[in-house]
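From: lab user (bench 3)
To: helpdesk
Subject: output format question, protein + zinc ion

Hello, I'm new to running complex predictions and I'm not sure whether the block I got back is the full result or only part of it. Here's what I submitted:
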Amino acid sequence: MPAKMQGEIHPHTYRFKLGGFEVTTIVDSTAVRSGLTPAFGGEANADAVKALAKANRIDTDRYEHNFTPLLVNTGKELVLFDTGNGSLREEHEQLKNRLPAGNLVARMGEAGYKPEDVDVVVITHGHPDHIGGLTKRGEPVFPNARYVFGATDFDYWNKGENIREARKFNRELYVKIMVPLANRATMIKPGDEVVPGVRAVDAFGHSAGLLAFTIESEGKRMINWADTCNHYVAAIQRPELHLDVDDDKEKAAATRKRILEMCDKEDLLVAGFHMPSPGIGYIEKGKDGIYRWVPHSYQMSL
Ligand SMILES: [Zn+2]
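Helpdesk reply: Thanks, we reran it on our side. This is the complete output you should expect:
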């Protein structure tokens, strides 16, 4: 009897040491989307983006979009950055065809963590795929956690002024999920420390107050850039291209360039929420001046 076909298998979790910290990336869920163009660069850049995809040996239309929260054990506290899609899909008809079901809690379990173990939940910004796993039918998923929210992002969504049409439902979600948790949240600004070794970085643009975070222990340093770049080819090799889901498109493009330069110059390991699994890599600036994503191989295992 020939062995039977088992179907694809993709690992969901990856853990490494960063100095005295343990860092785990967890793929909460994966969507396969079509429309790499016009999502990246609009119709005006359709040919250029297709050529870029071809040159990088990826499909010119469909692309894999992972949702990858990050868990950092500092030895004193277990800090979770973002929560994935949770049960948004089952709770909201509008999101049925837009977001995959979240699996964060189950996959944290595979990595040895229970929801009760999480001491701090940090939300990089208020988009659905980052806040969706915070609550399930109104109940907090991480019962012992305190929260850290970006002050600028919180004000933006809470006030609800100048919300573009495409984000109106997002605002409803924010008010429903985040506002009731605000009394247990510390509101932070760029430059603020979250816990010793973790500091917020201004990444405003993709969302009004998007925060990235540097994570440092015993001289080892990385950045969690969250949604600064949302595709490992299009957004990194052509950071100036506007992205449909960026709320402030010009600011998001300027932020991408600034943070890409920082990653290259400071030789930072990058964790990116929407980067290819397991979500970690480096930024290399070529002689042609173009930034490229270099997937992590074994640098963090030595
Ligand atoms: Zn996102």
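A quick orientation on your result: Residues 249-265 form the longest helix (17 residues). Let us know if anything else is unclear.
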